[in-house]
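Render this sequence as a predicted structure.
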Amino acid sequence: MFSKLPQRLSAPFGLLGDEAKLAFPSQPGGIVKLWATRNIPERDSYWEQYFVLFDSASDVFSLIAPHQIRRALVEAPENVATLIRVACNRLSTLLTDHTFPEPTATATSATVAAFTSTIRKASGGASERNATKEVLNCLRILQRVLPIIFDVQGESNAFELELLWKNEEVEDLEDGDASSSAPSQFVIEDEDDSDIEDAPKTPVASAPPNNKPKKKLPSLGEKLFTNLIDLMFCCGFTLSPKIQVDHHKINYVIWEKGIGSTSDAAAASAYDNNKTEVLRLLLVLLSRQIYVPPGALFTKPSLYTLHFVQQVPRRDVLTILCSLLNTAMNSTPSEMSIGAMAGKLPYNHLVFKGEDPRAKLVGMCFQVLSVLLDFQSGTAKDRTEGPPENQTSTPTPKTNSFRYFLMKLHRTQDFEFVLNGLCGILLQQMHAMNNLLPGARKPVPYVHEAILFFWKMIELNKKFQKYVLESDKCMDMVGYLLSYCVEVKDKPHQHGLCRAISYIIQSLSAEPAFGIKLAEPMKAPFTTQWNGVATGGDFLIHAIYSIVATTSGTLNSLYPALIIALSNSAPYFKNLGVTASARLVQLFTSFANPVFLLADEGHPRLLFFMLEIFNSVINNHLNENPTLILDILTSHKAFEDLAKFTLASGLREVKRVQMAKEELAKRTNNNNSNADNKGKGRVPDEVDLGGDAGAEKAKLLQHESWNRASSLEEAAGSSPTTRSESLESTRVVSPPPGGEVGVSSPFLDVVINIDGLAASIGRNGFVATQEWVTSWQQGLPLDTVLVLISDLLVKVQELQNSRKVNSATAIREFLSNVSVKDVLPPPSPIVTRQFVWSEASLVWLTSLIWGEVYVRGMTPLGIWNGTNVKLFHVKHSQNQPRQITETVTNVVGGFLRRTTSDNQTQAARGRMS
């Protein structure tokens, strides 16, 4: 009975083929032959192993090293070209093969089939062909080889043009293309029929008229894109086989329900990995632009991305766009589903190891969407319309069809679907951040991509932006974004995303509907630090203050956009809380500090924006914000000193503070030394710590002109006479020709070198001058605040002195009813500042998006490893190689360099640290 069993149970290369895999990198017939033997024919059996040997993507990326492909490109480039042609042609052949795709097997049947195949191979019998495995290996081989080719070619793409984009001419024996007349299987209704008619219904590269004797066949690159699109909608491979009609396995239906589809018939979670493989190769093809330096990004566009956004038929564009959108927006599991309930269990992600196929697919959908919607190179640049002084840019079907059709979305249910999906993703991230058990919930892996996609949505589709601003989830969305920004602000590799969030907030704040929402209470769950923040206006101020005040100047590039957002919102501030009012004044005094003010050429504009905020509140809602008005009156000295600010006075203050700190440090050291000499815990008789400390503090406060008065009594005591007497002890002497200023005070007597001190304060080589100070100091909008102070300060002081009981309540009641319109200067019209795109900002965002894609591609495959990316700088860290998103590979948009305007940014440089 055992006579039929094989006598040997070992396959030629091992039972499971592991020996053949391990030998592939080194054996003469493996990868070595790719450069050792020249001109290997396409029909040679050598190429077969590339499509049947590997069982997973990790096999391909671990057994084929980048340096091996690079060596083959140098020593035998024709073999690399042959490998690309063989893989593309085999992919085309398999798509039409009746054995593809393989029927989906259950777990039990798959195990039995695998064991049967192993026994068959062990017995020396012929193994069954697995067409699905071959298709996946074709995709994986191209994913591995193409980035190396892009890197070697750099800005010169002669090899690619010859291999992938050369059209072959043949005699035209057909009357026409039958497929071109096929009816569209999917249509999204558009409110503007003329726009629909303008959309391309067939590829631009259509067949020439019949009167020509020859026609051009599609290039290899065009056929590859066609095959990828077919694989995205192949029943039994990426779609459910239930929707297959007869023998037509390609069915252009949307993957999941949502925009353009109300049915989930095509969805099949069993094929999520196959979708990810197809999208990964698509992303590799689109990544050609990261091997071009920032300066050439618009002049040398990627042919691959140009083809995909301009030449793909309209039907395919709509189906792809809606499939990616719906898959990304359906990422949040239903509250009643098993996945959602399991996800709420603490540390559940540590129990079940391995990557979630669904999360990988959603992240890949977001990445492809962001890349396609961001592309504006070459002829894909948006068309400008209108007069030069008020030009607007709009995408068209001929520039970038994906940007165009996203812009054309207009149905309310579609906007609701997108907004709910994005809010669900950010809410999941909030739950992961706001947890009593640290690390109990896994952070959302694609939250960065979701935020960037939201920015693209509000940028391209103004109707969606209007819907968001009018929705009851508007402030929830703003709260999620700012909370996440506060959470990651201390991580240098996240600063590029923080900058993007600041521009998003600026864009939203420029709309009047945003200001109206600021008076509404915050409802969404945030981290515990925001407990007690009542309204949207208070939250906006608290969040921006947290970002500015706790980053110590490391996020200077964010400050203008965030402060502009406050300036845009200020006309709508009502009933600001005590803490929020204090935060606004603290921001002003921080920006007015000479150390900060004289450090950079762009810092005075922050003071300008802060004064605009106060002016807007005074002119529009003075009576509704008595607490803020009270804080302004309390800090009146800061405003008055700013009106008389000069370079000499600023440098004098900087030097005085430096000397005071040194004096305090010396006294502290002396006191500690004396305490050690007298004995531990014993206070020496000749040193009165309490008395000396109080006297020193009083002396510092007396001469600290930038210190905010702690009470109205102190403000009242600072009359002009008193202030002039206090200034007598700190005398400024007119600088002699050598540029020195003498400063004398009760505890310091020094001579300041203006040029030397100004140079030591300035950053990036900037040195402040009196001419520069005069240029911005005279333009500060101080009149409104100073008139308010002169009119109300004395009245409030009298009210406070006359009523010692509940004086604060009486003052607020007085400020809630006072009218100063007759004495104030005429109010300026409300003008908001939009975020304005420039070529520099477009390059920065492109580098930021591709930086995120690059980081995600580092694990587990390392798609772009071993290549020299030119769009951004890559720095690898040796510490904690497993923490990819935290320490191994981190990308930052070019945020560390000083900008020349509010909305223009320099070309981005990613950084991994």
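Summary. The mean pLDDT is 79. The first helix runs from residue 18 to 23.
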